[in-house]
Amino acid sequence: MKSTLYKADSRGYADHGWLKSFHTFSFANYYNPERMSFGALRVLNDDRVESGMGFGSHPHRDMEIISIPLEGDLEHKDSMGTTAVIRKGEIQVMSAGTGVMHSEYNKNKDEKVKFLQIWVIPNKMNVEPRYDQISIAENAKPNDFQQILSPSADDEGVWIHQDAWFNLANFDKDHSRKYELHKKGNGVFVFVLSGKAKIGDTVLSERDAMGIEDAESFTLEALEKSDILLMEVPMEL
Length: 237
Prior knowledge:
This protein has strands at 2-6, 12-15, 19-23, 41-49, 54-60, 64-71, 73-78, 83-87, 90-95, 100-105, 113-120, 130-135, 145-150, 158-159, 165-171, 176-180, 186-194, 197-199, 202-204, 209-213, 217-222, 226-234. By secondary structure, the protein is mostly beta strands. It starts with a strand and ends with a strand.
């Protein structure tokens, strides 16, 4: 197994006043040639949006865009006619495909929005744009891996145009579980949302991450009550 540690304080950071964003990979004004992507995982932004503020309408194409709110409510509008609010306990996916315009706003007047913005490079270009949003809280699996994204519309969670699987792990202290990869040649990017976890001899604290390659499985252990996001993606495009 090959592993790469990404410490929380090694991420890029942008402070726009209304937006504070940590970038795991090169994004906007943050450029690190050694942090361009993890296989098909191109963007992992840890965003905080002030009340009443947000991202104005802007374009995307040929990208799978996933949003996972961690706190607060985020309003989404797009050129497909979608108007929706995503909240903690939900996941949103937008296949930009041939092109889409969208905006995201924190409509709350008294609280911030914290959410993960994730981009995955698709395996199909020029697809028809699509939007989906589901609750993941109602299917939570304490001390187990909960699949929230896959390549199949018939599987649990949302789906995207890529051989990728995302899982949430909500583990109590001292709970451990083996994760088995779905596809040969894939890697897993493990991102600790809260708590403290261990993989092999490496301890990961809040917002630390580890990229795992050349493995069929690995064991994830929670050293304290922890919420962890596992993103399995192809390493070759």
